[in-house]
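Q: I'm teaching a short session on how sequence maps to structure, and I want students to see two examples side by side rather than one. Could you give me a first protein with its sequence written out and its structure tokens following it? Keep the formatting plain so it prints cleanly on a handout.
A: Of course. Example one:
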Amino acid sequence: MRIRRPWRLVAALLATLLCIPITPASAQPDRYATIDAYVRDRMEATSAPGLAYAVVGPGGPIHQRAWGTDGHDERVTAETPFLWGSVAKPVTATAVMTLVQSGRLGLDDRVVDHLPRFRFGGSAHASEVTIRHLLGQTAGIPAAATFKVTDCHGSGCPRPAERLDALNDVTPLGPPGTEYAYSSANYLALSAVAESVTGRPFADHLRRTVLGPAGMDGAIADAASARKRNLPPGHQLLWGFPAATSDGYDDHGAAYGYLGGDLNDLAAFAALQLRAGKGAGTVLTDESVRLMRQEGSAGGSGTGYGLGWRVGGLEAPLDDAIWHTGGTPGYSAMLFLLPRQNVALVLHQNLYGLMQDKAVMQAGFGAALLLAGGEPAAAPSASVHHLTVWGLTALAAVLLLAAGRSALLLRRPAVPATRRRLVTVTSAWVAIGALPGVAAMTQSGQIRPLMIWVPDAFAAVCAAAVAGAATALLRLVLAVRTHRHSLSPRTSGASEGIKRGERARGR
């Protein structure tokens, strides 16, 4: 066939091509280089000793990097095991949903039907709590109750079902389904339910239903696998300096936070979730994916939480992200699914502390924003941690010096003083000295969590409490001695002279 006006055809083709957005081949590498630089900057800003991250597609990692050293002072690679904290929750929810899909468990099953001794909030409240409530964090368990049942390190720790007894006397936030409150106790309860249904340890169920199918061959789900992977200790900031102090492991805590592995394992779970509901061998059905990634409601408003996932809650271009973050003492991790791009970002690092949460987690949030085409906001600082710890340390130092000075005064001859001055000065020192001790006593039920999560602040408070108590005691002894000295015949005249002098100055 002859084309009568070939130039028109060429012009049309050129116009069509010009309308097609063409991404230069270098665009993605440039974006990854930008993310690399940003993550390195955040790593330096927070003093994180080691970090690894990956951009993941449905088939696995597309881009990955690792820097720094681990708690054994060895170089961090994609094969270095870390703990993931609450990133364990979507993994646990996936394992629970496999039981729902098989018909062995129902989302609206009552927990007491599988755990007859479950008595959280009393029998009446406990009898209304369902599996859906636990998954969606709406069982009414207060966040403060978390430490009653979590972070049990060492041998001899009770199994999940036995730990739940500690919730019996906890006052619920409201009827089940009416209040959202994020608490790892919900997921410890889910592990107890899964063990009851399957008759096997939760770690075994996790391996069979999620870790194995996902290809997470190096995942850590119990103390035995932690030893097998030679899990290094994580790091916490002690007075602003990273220290490899966190090496405790909860043998029955995989469901809520003590799950881990290397970067390849974390990327494998992200890839599994990107494939979820899209064909055979993806573990989750379309309906399970929909339910897990659908925001729940409580009290007539959205919770920002699905079934094991945080849903939305972030500004564009992360407004449609499905995500979760997590931290255990010394380790932190983040996972972001970006549906529009059909990619995920995973990041874990061997540094975490409660008072540095925002500063540490910014590495993942900023990297995800860059991946989605956005720009990270100004990074938060860890100034709250530094001010708190150094402020408490300064208080402890001042009280220690005050105790030393009081001890020196006791070794010197007594100096007469008026009753008013004696009472005023002594009362002031006793109040200042007793303050740290009173503050510590109000937190007496949280001693173990404080030791685990904020060891430097805990040590500073203890030092301040001891120094303050010593100061208060020595000042009381000093006041008694001074008072007795003022009453003796030899000093009564001198004391009267002091009083007259003060009255004269008052005029």
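Q: Perfect. Now a second example for contrast.
A: Example two:
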Amino acid sequence: MFLSVAAALVVGGEVRASGVQLTGEGTAQTVAEESVSSAQEEKQARLSDKGPWGQLETFEVLLEAPIELIRASEPTSVRTRWFFGKMQGDAVADLIRKIVRQEGVAEKLCDRDRWLEEAEGVVVFPRTEDLVQIQKEDRLALYAELAKIQENSFHVEPEILYGGSVEEWAKGAELTERTLDFIKAVSYRQGSMLQFSDTPALLGLLSTEKERMAVLRALSRTPSLVAKIALNTLSTEKLAAYWHKGFRLKDTSSFMASLKRHKNIDRIDLLHLLPAGIRKILYTFPDPSSSRSGYLPDCHWSSLNFFNTQPLDRLADPVQATAYTLEKFTPVEPPYELGDVLFFTDTKTGDAYHSCAYLADDIVFTKNGRSPLQPWVLMHLDNVKQLYDMHFSTKVSAYRRKDMMGAR
């Protein structure tokens, strides 16, 4: 979704764990019960360069959405449906034949006995066995056309299979060989991202509820960084100066100093040094019933509320978020500081379709969309940009709260 911030700034829009319930301020949230699924290989930790934040040690985990959220959000149909809008039937057939070069496959897709032609538009219902016959290059082009129409939700927002290959993505998931073969056959690459848009067809192949839940949990996997701060790289005063940034309670320095007195403690989880509101929601999933503003929390609600001890529900409303940005924030240039809001603006339209909050060492706090299957996570800025560069020509602009100017 998109917001407008005057003529120059326009602000708009989407990580995914098995869970226990946390209760805070009257709302339930779901948090990762385990950082990594038992069969998932832990990736090697990475040490950052030293900076005013100290030095960070990070590693990546894959979070899976909890069963209750998956059941509340799972597709209701197992039939593949392609909507072509108000394009005339002959034009639809011409488009399919132009893109799908295998003549036999194109003719099956153009079988009008499997079409629905109504005033609202043309709908094509391809057979599952025909989907696997489409060549990858043709699939990418065809699905790009379908993604132009919002009703084709599985193409507008395809599943991303993180890990670089189906095998890497599926590690630890109890998926059958038949399921993996189908996913391999119909997945496709857009840039560096491996994507999958045929969830209904896949669910139609499954015979048990156990298989269905295993597939949907695997498809919900989303990466997040876990970060720790090395305590001995900077003095307690310098570390506290960056991480409390004039807005935190004065016991930050005392807390760090007390840790440094323990010879066996040289790192602490970054989570302990983030603002209270962020500590409550990081690695959790929003409760879809908890929205009081009429909107589910999105990226702008998350980033603009970064320093707010009590989140402002109204910031889930695009108009209110725009007004808040204009009133409370001012543009800044790099280097970025803790809590700076980074807006991802489409250079063609001027719309800011995403925002996230900067932490340190190009790590950001982000929620990549309104979906309840998208939790709050930590990511490298380049990886967030990579997600959205698939759809937009991006410019990143930074805004800082006016009452934070010179706070350190």
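Q: What should students look for in example two?
A: Point them to this: The first strand starts at residue 19 and ends at 24. Also worth mentioning: Residues 19-65+224-404 form one domain.
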